[in-house]
């Protein structure tokens, strides 16, 4: 498990940031195409083979705490919004790679004031053992079911 040296990782991160800023306008969510029956018995759409009124184009996305939000799109903006939605996937992918490279940089960069190399395999094992120990101390003596039941 040999990672590239720090300057190489930093160069890679710079490249990714440049890629990120080149993504351009993007938006989350998706574009859907809907047809609907108006329900009037005399309307053409009441015929079984009629697809319904439409198409109606909607841009929707999931908003934190508000469920699905969105709005109807004018026909002339549908292609533009589709491109913008596609760019969000690109933004997310590059953003994820930046996070990965940045984590490697964090691991490779020594703490300030020391020349010590980053801690390798042996140190990681020791850290896991420490965490496991803390976890055991945090759990109640009578088993985990008490607090979980309390949450219901
Ligand atoms: Zn109708």
What does this structure look like?
The protein is an alpha+beta fold and 152 residues long. The protein has a domain at 6-111. The chain has four helices and three strands, in the order αβββααα. The protein has helices at residues 6-21, 78-108, 121-138, 145-151, and strands spanning 30-36, 53-63, 67-73. It has a three-stranded antiparallel sheet with strand order 1-2-3. It starts with 5 loop residues before the first helix and ends with a helix. 3% of the residues are buried. Residues 38, 40, 43, 45, 53 line the site of zinc ion (ZN).
Give the secondary structure arrangement, pairings included.
Layout (H helix, E strand, L loop, with lengths): L5 H16 L8 E7 L16 E11 L3 E7 L4 H31 L12 H18 L6 H7 L1
Helix pairs in contact: 1-2
The protein binds zinc ion.
The site of zinc ion (ZN) has 5 residues, from loops.
Notable traits:
152 residues; alpha+beta; rod-shaped
Give the SSE string: HEEEHHH
Largest sheet strand order: 1-2-3
Question: Which ligands occur here?
Answer: zinc ion
Main β-sheet: number of strands, strand sense, barrel status? 3 strands, antiparallel
Low-confidence stretches: 142-146
Instruction: Please tell me the overall pLDDT.
Output: 83
User: What distance separates the N and C termini?
Assistant: 45 Å
Q: What structural class do you assign from the helix and strand content?
A: alpha+beta
Q: What Rg, in angstroms, do the CA atoms define?
A: 27 Å
Q: Give the proportion of residues in helices.
A: 40-55%
Overall body shape: rod-shaped
Strand content range: 15-25%
Q: Please work out how many helical segments DSSP would assign.
A: 4
Total number of beta strands: 3
